[in-house]
Amino acid sequence: MSNNLPKVAWIGLGIMGSPMSENLIKAGYDVTGYTLEQDKVDRLAAAGGTGASSIAEAVRDADVVITMVPASPQVEAIAYGPEGILENAKRGALLVDMSSITPQTSVDLAKNAAEKGIRVLDAPVSGGEAGAIEAVLSIMVGGEQADFDAAKPVLDALGKTIVLCGPHGSGQTVKAANQLIVAVNIQACAEAVVFLEKSGVDLAAALDVLGGGLAGSTVLTRKKDNFLNRDFAPGFRIDLHHKDMGIVTDAARNVGAALPVGGVVAQLVASLRAQGDGGLDHSALLRSVERLSGQPVQA
């Protein structure tokens, strides 16, 4: 292992974190990981990383600490307090939070970390589980140029489109916009699917030709099989998209931006969750349209 590379601590080994951390190991980085589920820590160790039994142990010697957890409360839980990252990482370490959280949480984290001599970037991602596995994620970053430059080689091992979008919190703002576009796009695709099926059209053929025209999108390409097979195994859970729609509607209100269609889709995501579908992939917005259209919904 070439140890001129920075030592990396990885906190949060879920659907996204596990394959991302493994891509860093493949790129030659020394990765020490911690997460709540022991089997995920074991998976990292099996892939050539080092398991840690606490956050403090994971981050102690790290040059770069990367976090990938579900939401703002989890980021705060792992960053703050005596067992947290800020108390246990070394001065000069670079903390790259790749979770999708509120822009304000990122701004506050950067401010609190600076008091400990720790540099911070918010670096949320788009591309889902497939993008994480293939290392082709889009990574939107907020923070200082110098810190972005330092993190860039590490981020290059995780994604393909890596852009500094502005000061702390900017990455989260762009991610919120991303989640708005994705949700509205999935909803439009779901409505088209039900319309096509109820019209007796060959759905696979229709989605192929739509994908080649102006209606084509990464969402349609990535989710076409989910729609065709009614396969809603989670690449990105409705529960998390519900959280993200809350972030974007709240942030938009704060700056005075109207989201008329986004607001409707946010409610459709919320209703899907209320019907017990929160653990399904966000392509399960199709189930909501089926219910509204009197279609039988598979259990």
From TrEMBL:
GO molecular function: 2-hydroxy-3-oxopropionate reductase activity
Keywords: NAD, Oxidoreductase
Top-level taxon of the source organism: Bacteria
Span of domain 6-phosphogluconate dehydrogenase NADP-binding: 7-166
Residue span, 3-hydroxyisobutyrate dehydrogenase-like NAD-binding domain: 169-287
Pfam families (alphabetical): NAD_binding_11, NAD_binding_2
InterPro entries assigned to the protein according to its UniProt record, in alphabetical order: 6PGDH_NADP-bd, HIBADH-like_NADP-bd, HIBADH-related, Tartro_sem_red
UniProt-listed Enzyme Commission number(s): 1.1.1.60
Family designation: Belongs to the HIBADH-related family.
Protein name as catalogued: 2-hydroxy-3-oxopropionate reductase
Naturally occurring in which organism (per UniProt): Streptomyces poriferorum
